[in-house]
Design brief:
It is a single chain. It contains 16 helices and no strands. Helix 6 runs antiparallel to helix 7 and helix 8 packs across helix 16. With about 325 residues, the protein is mainly alpha-helical.
Length: about 325
């Protein structure tokens, strides 16, 4: 019901501007700005949202959204799943508002994926702190913390509608780069297959490249921004994943590095005298702890292959 009201408000805002333009033989002003659309969206929220929704949710300003997103991102990069869970009410309210704010739909895709991590974190009991003098026990490379949780979550989840059109093209590119084609399902965890998805910290596209990494992998980031180009970003992602695999010789560690950065993963392995993702999982950012099992479970659910059967990249 809420979403119907908010969608109607957005449609009405577009129609209002369209009608106004049609009644003027020659436009006297410039095209409406993002701020114009925002003001209309807020006015329509005030006019059409029922009282119980207004009591529960406050329509944020763009500045409030960016401030909230920055706090959430910092928590995702922290090591506490409990701290992440605290953001659930605020994140759900922000998601409703983002879907109603014209021009912010692609940010909503980013927030929806992070809400998925928050939901999963609620199902994970926090581990007791490890005494500093006790070294972590050796754990097999096949052990992936929280993988079964994500397998269960993915069993009933619908495939994103954009996947049918994009996956065949992306698989061909990954195969051409000598990569396991099934790894293209990483794009579902990153962007729900939205080529225009963007994060508040600057990541964009199907594979959510940050500007610096995109440039390292040969992508332009300005006029045009090739991170939004499905085929070019897929080729860059395949090459980057191949590079990470050869560095860590493990798909879970390569995925952890894709999310948290190769330097962070390497330092954590050295600090913990570890060789597997399972051994360092608790020392990685909260987002990464959820990201690695989610990507593996997504690939398993969509491609019907156990992640242990993923071959190494072709040289």
């Amino acid at each position: 019901m809420v979403m119907k009201i908010l969608r109607r408000g957005v449609v009405c805002s577009v129609l209002l501007f369209s009608v106004a333009g049609a009644n003027e033989p020659e436009p006297a002003t410039e095209e409406p700005t993002l701020d114009d659309y925002y003001q209309v969206g807020r006015a329509l929220f005030d006019a059409f949202a029922p009282p119980e929704i207004k009591e529960q949710f406050e329509f944020p300003t763009p500045q409030q959204w960016m401030e909230f997103a920055s706090r959430l991102q910092n928590t995702l990069q922290g090591d506490s799943l409990a701290d992440l869970i605290v953001y659930e009410p605020e994140a759900r309210a922000a998601l409703i508002a983002l879907r109603a704010m014209p021009g912010y739909e692609d940010y909503a895709e980013w927030l929806e994926e992070r809400l998925d991590y928050i939901d999963a974190a609620k199902q994970v009991a926090p581990a007791p702190p490890r005494p500093p003098s006790v070294q972590p026990k050796k754990r097999l490379a096949a052990e992936i913390p929280h993988l079964q949780l994500w397998r269960e979550r993915m069993q009933t989840r619908a495939v994103p509608s954009r996947a049918a059109k994009l996956v065949p093209k992306l698989r061909a590119i990954f195969a051409d780069e000598g990569m396991p084609p099934d790894l293209v399902w990483l794009a579902e965890a990153e962007s729900s297959f939205n080529p225009k998805a963007r994060s508040p910290v600057g990541a964009r596209g199907l594979f959510q490249f940050m500007p610096a990494t995109a440039k390292e992998m040969g992508l332009r980031t300005f006029l045009p921004d090739e991170r939004n180009h499905p085929e070019k970003s897929a080729r860059a992602a395949a090459r980057y994943l191949r590079q990470l695999y050869h560095r860590f010789e493990s798909w879970p560690l390569a995925l952890a590095a894709y999310n948290a950065g190769g330097g962070r993963v390497n330092r954590t392995l050295n600090t913990n005298r570890a060789t597997t993702f399972a051994e360092i999982s608790e020392a990685l950012p909260a987002e990464t702890r959820m990201y690695v099992p989610k990507v593996l479970a997504t690939m398993e659910a969509r491609a019907g292959i156990n992640w242990l059967k993923l071959p190494a990249p072709r040289q």
